[in-house]
Amino acid sequence: MRMVAMALLWSASAASGAAPAPLKPGEYACYGSGGRIMIGLGFKLLGGGRYTDLDGKNPGTVAVSGGNVRFKGGHLDGQVGRELNAKGGFRIGAQASCEPF
Asked: For residues 92 and 76, what is the distance between their CA atoms, to the nearest angstrom?
């Protein structure tokens, strides 16, 4: 029983991992299954909680809360990224992931 409790404690601490990195200004690419780039999901993070599409024509805001990345306005309006990692990447949608490039 003690071994089970220790294993559960270890897995809970390992699952939390390192604290997520804040998103850094720059361009982000998003990839689907098989590592294929997802046209239309990429974005530029401008800083100050602002982002645009890669053409700079559809502005919106982005907010990070815990491991979630929430987009409001712009071409990603209503999307929520999850599992923000220490490198600034996150999962979005059913099978896509985004990361800085």
From this structure: 10
Residue type at 60?
Answer: G
CA distance linking residue 69 with residue 47, whole number of Å: 14
The DSSP secondary structure of 24-88, one letter per residue, reads PSEEEEEE-GGG-B-TTT-EEEEETTEEEETTS-S-EEEEEETTEEEEEEGGGTT-EEE---TTS
The pair of structure tokens assigned to 34 is: 């098989």
pLDDT tens readout for residues 20-51: 667 899 999 999 988 899 988 999 999 899 99
With a cut of 60, say whether residue 16 has pLDDT above it. no
92, 85 in Cβ contact below 8 A? no
CA–CA gap between residue 4 and residue 84 (Å, rounded): 29
Residue 4 scores a pLDDT above 50: no
